[in-house]
Amino acid sequence: MKLLVTGGAGFVGATVTRLLLDAGHEVVVLDDLSRNDAAQVPADATFVQARVQEVGDVLTPDAGFDGVLHFAGLISAGESMTHPELHWEANTRAGLNLLDAMRTAGVKRLIFSSTAACYGEPSELPLTERAITMPINTYGATKLAVDLAIASEARAHKLAAVSLRYFNVAGALVREDGGMIGERHDPETHLIPIALEVAAGKREKLPMFGDDYPTPDGTCIRDYIHVADLAEAHLLALTAAVPGEHKIYNLGSGTGFSNAQVIDAVRTVTGHPVPVEWLPRRPGDPASLYASSALAQADLGWTPTRTSLEAIVADAWAFYQGR
Ligand SMILES: NC(=O)c1ccc[n+]([C@@H]2O[C@H](COP(=O)([O-])OP(=O)(O)OC[C@H]3O[C@@H](n4cnc5c(N)ncnc54)[C@H](O)[C@@H]3O)[C@@H](O)[C@H]2O)c1
Ligand SMILES: O=c1ccn([C@@H]2O[C@H](COP(=O)(O)OP(=O)(O)O[C@H]3O[C@H](CO)[C@@H](O)[C@H](O)[C@H]3O)[C@@H](O)[C@H]2O)c(=O)[nH]1
After folding, report:
1. Which of 75, 80, 109, 286 could bridge to 87 as Cys pair (CB 3.0-4.6 Å)?
2. From CA 147, how far away is CA 273, in angstroms rounded?
3. Of the residues 75, 112, 169, 189, which should be mutated to test ligand 1's pocket, given the most ligand atoms within 8 Å of the CB?
4. Which residue range forms the structural domain that includes residue 199?
5. Pair type for strands 221-222 and 257-258
Protein backbone atom coordinates (compact mmCIF):
# COMPACT_ATOMS: atom_id res chain seq x y z
CA MET A 1 0.00 0.00 0.00
CA LYS A 2 0.99 3.64 -0.38
CA LEU A 3 0.56 5.10 3.10
CA LEU A 4 0.73 8.55 4.64
CA VAL A 5 2.15 8.54 8.18
CA THR A 6 1.55 11.79 10.05
CA GLY A 7 3.83 12.35 13.04
CA GLY A 8 6.35 9.90 11.60
CA ALA A 9 9.31 11.78 13.08
CA GLY A 10 8.00 10.86 16.52
CA PHE A 11 8.63 7.90 18.79
CA VAL A 12 5.69 5.72 17.76
CA GLY A 13 5.27 7.02 14.20
CA ALA A 14 8.91 6.40 13.28
CA THR A 15 8.78 2.90 14.78
CA VAL A 16 5.64 1.99 12.85
CA THR A 17 7.11 3.52 9.68
CA ARG A 18 10.12 1.19 10.03
CA LEU A 19 7.84 -1.85 10.29
CA LEU A 20 5.64 -0.70 7.38
CA LEU A 21 8.70 -0.25 5.14
CA ASP A 22 10.04 -3.65 6.19
CA ALA A 23 6.68 -5.16 5.22
CA GLY A 24 7.01 -3.69 1.72
CA HIS A 25 4.71 -0.67 1.94
CA GLU A 26 5.56 2.71 0.43
CA VAL A 27 5.54 5.42 3.12
CA VAL A 28 5.33 9.20 3.01
CA VAL A 29 5.99 10.76 6.43
CA LEU A 30 4.46 14.14 7.24
CA ASP A 31 5.62 15.92 10.39
CA ASP A 32 6.00 19.59 11.27
CA LEU A 33 9.00 18.79 13.54
CA SER A 34 7.41 20.84 16.32
CA ARG A 35 8.25 18.14 18.91
CA ASN A 36 11.05 16.10 17.27
CA ASP A 37 13.77 16.51 14.70
CA ALA A 38 13.82 14.32 11.58
CA ALA A 39 16.69 12.11 12.78
CA GLN A 40 14.49 9.07 13.38
CA VAL A 41 12.54 9.18 10.10
CA PRO A 42 13.68 6.03 8.27
CA ALA A 43 15.82 6.94 5.25
CA ASP A 44 13.71 4.80 2.91
CA ALA A 45 10.57 6.84 3.64
CA THR A 46 9.76 10.08 1.81
CA PHE A 47 9.74 12.98 4.27
CA VAL A 48 7.58 16.10 4.04
CA GLN A 49 7.86 18.81 6.69
CA ALA A 50 4.34 20.18 7.06
CA ARG A 51 1.53 20.58 9.55
CA VAL A 52 -1.44 18.24 9.50
CA GLN A 53 -3.52 21.39 9.12
CA GLU A 54 -2.04 21.63 5.59
CA VAL A 55 -2.21 17.91 4.83
CA GLY A 56 -4.47 18.55 1.82
CA ASP A 57 -1.39 19.76 -0.10
CA VAL A 58 0.07 16.24 0.15
CA LEU A 59 -3.04 14.09 0.33
CA THR A 60 -4.36 15.11 -3.08
CA PRO A 61 -6.84 13.08 -5.14
CA ASP A 62 -4.03 12.24 -7.61
CA ALA A 63 -1.42 11.18 -5.06
CA GLY A 64 -2.67 7.59 -4.94
CA PHE A 65 -2.67 7.01 -1.18
CA ASP A 66 -4.36 3.85 0.06
CA GLY A 67 -4.49 4.92 3.68
CA VAL A 68 -3.33 7.16 6.50
CA LEU A 69 -1.83 6.36 9.89
CA HIS A 70 -2.35 9.45 12.03
CA PHE A 71 0.18 9.80 14.88
CA ALA A 72 0.80 13.55 14.78
CA GLY A 73 -0.30 15.51 17.78
CA LEU A 74 0.58 16.68 21.25
CA ILE A 75 0.88 13.97 23.84
CA SER A 76 1.49 15.41 27.26
CA ALA A 77 -1.47 15.22 29.63
CA GLY A 78 0.27 17.68 31.99
CA GLU A 79 0.77 20.26 29.23
CA SER A 80 -2.85 19.87 28.14
CA MET A 81 -3.97 21.22 31.53
CA THR A 82 -1.76 24.32 31.35
CA HIS A 83 -2.02 24.96 27.57
CA PRO A 84 -5.32 23.37 26.49
CA GLU A 85 -5.56 25.56 23.38
CA LEU A 86 -2.44 23.90 21.93
CA HIS A 87 -4.03 20.46 22.27
CA TRP A 88 -7.37 21.47 20.76
CA GLU A 89 -5.44 22.88 17.78
CA ALA A 90 -2.88 20.11 17.19
CA ASN A 91 -5.12 17.19 18.08
CA THR A 92 -8.72 18.11 17.33
CA ARG A 93 -8.60 20.83 14.69
CA ALA A 94 -5.80 19.03 12.84
CA GLY A 95 -7.70 15.73 13.12
CA LEU A 96 -10.81 17.27 11.59
CA ASN A 97 -8.69 18.79 8.80
CA LEU A 98 -7.28 15.37 8.09
CA LEU A 99 -10.76 13.83 7.80
CA ASP A 100 -11.76 16.61 5.37
CA ALA A 101 -8.64 16.04 3.27
CA MET A 102 -9.15 12.28 3.21
CA ARG A 103 -12.78 12.70 2.12
CA THR A 104 -11.77 15.13 -0.65
CA ALA A 105 -8.98 12.85 -1.85
CA GLY A 106 -11.13 9.71 -1.63
CA VAL A 107 -8.73 7.97 0.80
CA LYS A 108 -10.79 5.46 2.75
CA ARG A 109 -8.54 3.81 5.33
CA LEU A 110 -7.43 5.37 8.63
CA ILE A 111 -5.55 4.15 11.68
CA PHE A 112 -5.65 6.69 14.53
CA SER A 113 -3.50 6.97 17.66
CA SER A 114 -6.10 7.32 20.38
CA THR A 115 -5.38 6.99 24.07
CA ALA A 116 -6.28 5.48 27.41
CA ALA A 117 -6.80 9.09 28.53
CA CYS A 118 -10.22 8.95 26.77
CA TYR A 119 -11.53 6.94 29.74
CA GLY A 120 -10.59 9.42 32.48
CA GLU A 121 -10.89 8.02 36.00
CA PRO A 122 -11.68 4.39 35.08
CA SER A 123 -15.21 3.06 35.51
CA GLU A 124 -13.75 -0.48 35.52
CA LEU A 125 -10.32 -2.14 35.75
CA PRO A 126 -8.87 -3.57 33.67
CA LEU A 127 -10.25 -1.09 31.14
CA THR A 128 -12.18 -2.59 28.25
CA GLU A 129 -13.42 -0.63 25.25
CA ARG A 130 -16.89 -0.61 26.83
CA ALA A 131 -15.72 1.51 29.79
CA ILE A 132 -17.21 4.99 30.17
CA THR A 133 -15.29 7.66 28.25
CA MET A 134 -15.12 10.72 30.51
CA PRO A 135 -11.65 12.30 30.17
CA ILE A 136 -10.26 14.18 33.18
CA ASN A 137 -7.53 15.94 31.19
CA THR A 138 -7.80 18.12 28.09
CA TYR A 139 -5.48 15.82 26.14
CA GLY A 140 -7.95 12.93 26.51
CA ALA A 141 -10.87 15.19 25.57
CA THR A 142 -9.13 16.39 22.39
CA LYS A 143 -8.45 12.79 21.34
CA LEU A 144 -11.94 11.55 22.22
CA ALA A 145 -13.39 14.35 20.06
CA VAL A 146 -11.46 12.96 17.08
CA ASP A 147 -12.61 9.42 17.87
CA LEU A 148 -16.22 10.63 17.78
CA ALA A 149 -15.64 12.46 14.48
CA ILE A 150 -14.08 9.33 12.98
CA ALA A 151 -17.13 7.29 14.02
CA SER A 152 -19.43 9.71 12.15
CA GLU A 153 -17.13 9.72 9.13
CA ALA A 154 -17.13 5.93 8.98
CA ARG A 155 -20.94 5.78 9.24
CA ALA A 156 -21.68 8.54 6.73
CA HIS A 157 -18.84 8.22 4.23
CA LYS A 158 -17.79 4.57 4.48
CA LEU A 159 -14.37 5.27 5.96
CA ALA A 160 -12.61 2.09 7.16
CA ALA A 161 -11.21 3.21 10.50
CA VAL A 162 -9.44 1.79 13.53
CA SER A 163 -8.64 3.79 16.67
CA LEU A 164 -5.92 2.23 18.79
CA ARG A 165 -6.11 3.38 22.39
CA TYR A 166 -2.55 3.11 23.62
CA PHE A 167 -1.67 2.89 27.27
CA ASN A 168 1.85 4.10 28.26
CA VAL A 169 4.20 3.43 25.39
CA ALA A 170 7.80 2.76 26.38
CA GLY A 171 10.95 0.80 25.49
CA ALA A 172 12.60 1.19 22.10
CA LEU A 173 12.76 -0.67 18.80
CA VAL A 174 16.07 -2.54 18.90
CA ARG A 175 16.87 -4.14 15.57
CA GLU A 176 19.16 -7.05 14.77
CA ASP A 177 21.50 -4.75 12.81
CA GLY A 178 21.90 -2.62 15.95
CA GLY A 179 19.62 0.16 14.69
CA MET A 180 17.34 1.68 17.31
CA ILE A 181 14.31 3.95 17.35
CA GLY A 182 13.32 5.36 20.70
CA GLU A 183 11.81 8.06 22.79
CA ARG A 184 13.40 11.50 22.55
CA HIS A 185 10.52 13.88 23.05
CA ASP A 186 11.39 17.55 23.32
CA PRO A 187 10.53 18.52 25.97
CA GLU A 188 10.53 15.09 27.63
CA THR A 189 7.60 14.56 29.98
CA HIS A 190 7.35 10.76 30.32
CA LEU A 191 8.29 8.97 33.51
CA ILE A 192 10.74 6.35 32.18
CA PRO A 193 12.93 8.59 29.98
CA ILE A 194 13.05 11.24 32.69
CA ALA A 195 14.09 8.62 35.27
CA LEU A 196 16.80 7.45 32.84
CA GLU A 197 18.10 11.02 32.57
CA VAL A 198 18.40 11.08 36.36
CA ALA A 199 20.15 7.68 36.37
CA ALA A 200 22.58 9.01 33.75
CA GLY A 201 23.35 12.07 35.86
CA LYS A 202 21.74 14.50 33.38
CA ARG A 203 19.15 15.58 35.95
CA GLU A 204 19.56 15.81 39.69
CA LYS A 205 16.26 14.35 40.87
CA LEU A 206 13.13 12.74 39.54
CA PRO A 207 10.09 14.91 40.31
CA MET A 208 7.49 12.41 41.57
CA PHE A 209 3.95 13.74 41.30
CA GLY A 210 1.89 12.51 44.23
CA ASP A 211 2.26 9.95 47.02
CA ASP A 212 -1.34 9.99 48.23
CA TYR A 213 -3.23 8.13 45.51
CA PRO A 214 -5.54 5.25 46.51
CA THR A 215 -2.99 2.64 45.35
CA PRO A 216 -0.88 0.23 47.44
CA ASP A 217 2.19 2.53 47.59
CA GLY A 218 0.36 5.83 47.05
CA THR A 219 1.82 6.49 43.56
CA CYS A 220 -0.10 6.28 40.26
CA ILE A 221 -0.37 2.98 38.41
CA ARG A 222 0.14 2.75 34.64
CA ASP A 223 0.30 0.00 32.02
CA TYR A 224 3.59 0.10 30.04
CA ILE A 225 3.38 -1.31 26.53
CA HIS A 226 6.59 -1.95 24.58
CA VAL A 227 6.73 0.17 21.42
CA ALA A 228 7.68 -2.85 19.28
CA ASP A 229 4.57 -4.75 20.42
CA LEU A 230 2.43 -1.65 19.93
CA ALA A 231 3.81 -1.07 16.43
CA GLU A 232 2.89 -4.57 15.30
CA ALA A 233 -0.77 -3.90 16.12
CA HIS A 234 -0.82 -1.13 13.49
CA LEU A 235 0.06 -3.50 10.68
CA LEU A 236 -2.67 -5.88 11.82
CA ALA A 237 -5.18 -3.02 12.11
CA LEU A 238 -4.47 -1.90 8.54
CA THR A 239 -5.78 -5.16 7.17
CA ALA A 240 -8.62 -5.42 9.72
CA ALA A 241 -10.20 -2.07 8.79
CA VAL A 242 -13.64 -2.47 7.19
CA PRO A 243 -15.46 0.22 5.12
CA GLY A 244 -18.23 1.87 7.15
CA GLU A 245 -16.88 0.63 10.49
CA HIS A 246 -14.95 2.40 13.23
CA LYS A 247 -13.25 -0.19 15.39
CA ILE A 248 -11.64 0.72 18.71
CA TYR A 249 -9.00 -1.37 20.50
CA ASN A 250 -7.15 -0.89 23.77
CA LEU A 251 -3.44 -1.66 23.54
CA GLY A 252 -1.69 -2.38 26.81
CA SER A 253 0.26 -5.21 28.36
CA GLY A 254 -2.51 -5.75 30.92
CA THR A 255 -0.37 -5.22 34.02
CA GLY A 256 -0.23 -2.09 36.12
CA PHE A 257 3.03 -0.85 37.65
CA SER A 258 3.19 1.99 40.15
CA ASN A 259 5.45 4.97 39.55
CA ALA A 260 7.57 3.83 42.51
CA GLN A 261 7.93 0.35 40.94
CA VAL A 262 9.04 1.97 37.68
CA ILE A 263 11.75 3.93 39.48
CA ASP A 264 12.92 0.74 41.20
CA ALA A 265 13.14 -0.98 37.80
CA VAL A 266 15.21 1.93 36.47
CA ARG A 267 17.58 1.61 39.45
CA THR A 268 17.91 -2.15 38.88
CA VAL A 269 18.44 -1.96 35.12
CA THR A 270 20.88 0.96 35.13
CA GLY A 271 22.67 0.15 38.38
CA HIS A 272 22.54 3.87 39.23
CA PRO A 273 20.73 5.72 42.01
CA VAL A 274 17.60 7.69 41.09
CA PRO A 275 16.96 10.32 43.78
CA VAL A 276 13.33 11.35 44.00
CA GLU A 277 11.82 14.70 44.89
CA TRP A 278 8.26 14.22 46.13
CA LEU A 279 5.88 16.82 44.74
CA PRO A 280 2.10 17.31 44.85
CA ARG A 281 -0.16 15.50 42.39
CA ARG A 282 -0.02 16.62 38.74
CA PRO A 283 -3.48 17.88 37.64
CA GLY A 284 -5.31 15.54 35.26
CA ASP A 285 -3.68 12.26 36.38
CA PRO A 286 -6.02 9.30 37.00
CA ALA A 287 -4.86 7.12 39.91
CA SER A 288 -4.76 3.83 38.09
CA LEU A 289 -4.90 2.77 34.43
CA TYR A 290 -4.38 -0.67 33.00
CA ALA A 291 -5.85 -2.33 29.96
CA SER A 292 -7.78 -5.32 28.90
CA SER A 293 -6.53 -5.92 25.37
CA ALA A 294 -8.66 -9.05 24.97
CA LEU A 295 -10.57 -7.53 22.05
CA ALA A 296 -7.39 -6.66 20.11
CA GLN A 297 -6.08 -10.13 20.81
CA ALA A 298 -9.30 -11.78 19.57
CA ASP A 299 -10.00 -9.54 16.54
CA LEU A 300 -6.51 -8.63 15.36
CA GLY A 301 -4.62 -11.69 16.59
CA TRP A 302 -2.30 -9.31 18.47
CA THR A 303 -0.31 -10.54 21.44
CA PRO A 304 2.17 -8.37 23.30
CA THR A 305 5.25 -10.43 24.09
CA ARG A 306 7.67 -7.90 25.62
CA THR A 307 5.74 -7.40 28.86
CA SER A 308 8.47 -7.49 31.53
CA LEU A 309 8.97 -4.01 33.00
CA GLU A 310 12.73 -4.62 33.34
CA ALA A 311 12.97 -5.63 29.67
CA ILE A 312 11.04 -2.52 28.61
CA VAL A 313 13.29 -0.28 30.71
CA ALA A 314 16.39 -2.12 29.44
CA ASP A 315 15.52 -1.34 25.81
CA ALA A 316 14.81 2.30 26.69
CA TRP A 317 18.19 2.45 28.50
CA ALA A 318 20.01 0.88 25.53
CA PHE A 319 18.51 3.56 23.30
CA TYR A 320 19.30 6.32 25.77
CA GLN A 321 22.94 5.29 25.96
CA GLY A 322 23.29 4.88 22.19
CA ARG A 323 21.72 8.11 21.03
N1 LIG B 1 3.70 7.84 23.77
C2 LIG B 1 2.65 7.42 24.45
O3 LIG B 1 2.76 6.92 25.59
C4 LIG B 1 1.27 7.54 23.86
C5 LIG B 1 0.18 6.97 24.54
C6 LIG B 1 -1.11 7.11 24.01
C7 LIG B 1 -1.30 7.73 22.78
N8 LIG B 1 -0.22 8.27 22.14
C9 LIG B 1 -0.45 8.96 20.87
O10 LIG B 1 0.44 8.41 19.89
C11 LIG B 1 0.85 9.42 18.97
C12 LIG B 1 2.37 9.40 18.84
O13 LIG B 1 2.96 9.61 20.12
P14 LIG B 1 4.54 9.74 20.27
O15 LIG B 1 4.91 9.29 21.62
O16 LIG B 1 5.20 9.13 19.09
O17 LIG B 1 4.70 11.33 20.22
P18 LIG B 1 5.82 12.22 19.53
O19 LIG B 1 5.72 13.58 20.14
O20 LIG B 1 7.15 11.54 19.55
O21 LIG B 1 5.32 12.27 18.02
C22 LIG B 1 4.30 13.13 17.58
C23 LIG B 1 4.83 13.86 16.35
O24 LIG B 1 3.78 14.71 15.85
C25 LIG B 1 4.38 15.90 15.37
N26 LIG B 1 3.32 16.92 15.35
C27 LIG B 1 2.69 17.47 16.41
N28 LIG B 1 1.74 18.33 15.98
C29 LIG B 1 1.77 18.29 14.62
C30 LIG B 1 1.02 18.91 13.60
N31 LIG B 1 0.03 19.76 13.88
N32 LIG B 1 1.33 18.63 12.32
C33 LIG B 1 2.33 17.78 12.00
N34 LIG B 1 3.06 17.14 12.92
C35 LIG B 1 2.78 17.39 14.22
C36 LIG B 1 5.52 16.19 16.32
O37 LIG B 1 6.54 17.00 15.74
C38 LIG B 1 6.02 14.78 16.64
O39 LIG B 1 7.12 14.40 15.83
C40 LIG B 1 0.28 10.74 19.50
O41 LIG B 1 -0.88 11.05 18.74
C42 LIG B 1 -0.09 10.43 20.93
O43 LIG B 1 -1.17 11.19 21.38
C44 LIG B 1 1.06 8.18 22.63
O1 LIG C 1 8.56 13.53 35.81
C2 LIG C 1 7.56 12.84 35.98
C3 LIG C 1 6.77 12.37 34.90
C4 LIG C 1 5.66 11.61 35.18
N5 LIG C 1 5.33 11.31 36.47
C6 LIG C 1 4.14 10.49 36.76
O7 LIG C 1 4.29 9.27 36.05
C8 LIG C 1 3.00 8.78 35.63
C9 LIG C 1 3.03 8.58 34.13
O10 LIG C 1 3.15 9.88 33.54
P11 LIG C 1 3.61 10.10 32.02
O12 LIG C 1 4.82 9.30 31.74
O13 LIG C 1 3.67 11.58 31.80
O14 LIG C 1 2.43 9.45 31.19
P15 LIG C 1 0.83 9.67 31.30
O16 LIG C 1 0.49 10.99 31.86
O17 LIG C 1 0.28 8.45 31.98
O18 LIG C 1 0.41 9.72 29.77
C19 LIG C 1 0.98 8.85 28.80
O20 LIG C 1 0.16 7.72 28.69
C21 LIG C 1 -1.15 8.02 28.24
C22 LIG C 1 -1.92 6.72 28.15
O23 LIG C 1 -2.05 6.11 29.41
C24 LIG C 1 -1.02 8.67 26.85
O25 LIG C 1 -2.26 8.94 26.33
C26 LIG C 1 -0.20 9.92 26.89
O27 LIG C 1 -0.02 10.46 25.59
C28 LIG C 1 1.12 9.61 27.48
O29 LIG C 1 1.84 10.84 27.66
C30 LIG C 1 1.99 9.84 36.10
O31 LIG C 1 1.49 9.46 37.35
C32 LIG C 1 2.84 11.09 36.27
O33 LIG C 1 2.33 12.00 37.23
C34 LIG C 1 6.09 11.75 37.53
O35 LIG C 1 5.80 11.50 38.70
N36 LIG C 1 7.20 12.51 37.24
Report:
1. 80
2. 41
3. 75
4. 173-222+254-322
5. antiparallel
Torsion angles phi and psi, residue 214, rounded to 5 = -75, 65
Query: pTM of the prediction?
Result: 0.98
Same domain membership, residue 108 and residue 230: yes
CB 53 within 8 A of CB 62: no
What is the number of the ligand closest to the CA of 117?
2
Domain-ending residue, one of 234, 251, 268:
251
Same domain, 17 and 28: yes
- How many C-beta atoms lie closer than 10 Å to residue 237's C-beta? 25
Same-domain pairing of 54 and 141: yes
- Half-sphere exposure at residue 80, Cβ-oriented, CA atoms within 13 angstroms: 23
Contacts of 321 (CB under 8 A, 6+ apart): 200
Banded pLDDT at 176 (limits 50, 70, 90) = confident
> What's the 190 CA to ligand 2 centre distance in angstroms?
5
30 φ/ψ angles, rounded to the nearest 5 degrees: -120, 125
Taking every pair of C-alpha atoms in the chain, what is the biggest distance, in angstroms?
56
Candidate list 139, 166, 213, 249, residue with the active-site label: 139
Give the Cα separation of 112 and 253 in Å (integer). Answer: 19
At 109-121, the pLDDT tens digits run: 999 999 999 999 9
* Number of domain units in the chain: 2
ipTM of the complex: 0.98
Active site residue 119: no
Cα–Cα distance, 36 to 64 (Å, whole number): 27
Evaluated on CA atoms 78, 84, 89, 95, the torsion sign reads positive
How far apart CA 284 and CA 56 sit, in angstroms, is 34
Best mutation site among 34, 54, 76, 248 for ligand 1 pocket (most ligand atoms within 8 Å of CB): 34
End-to-end CA gap in the chain: 31
Phi-psi category of residue 225: left, alpha or beta, with phi > 0 → left and psi -120 to 50 → alpha:
beta
User: How many Cβ atoms are within 10 Å of 295's Cβ, its own excluded?
Assistant: 17
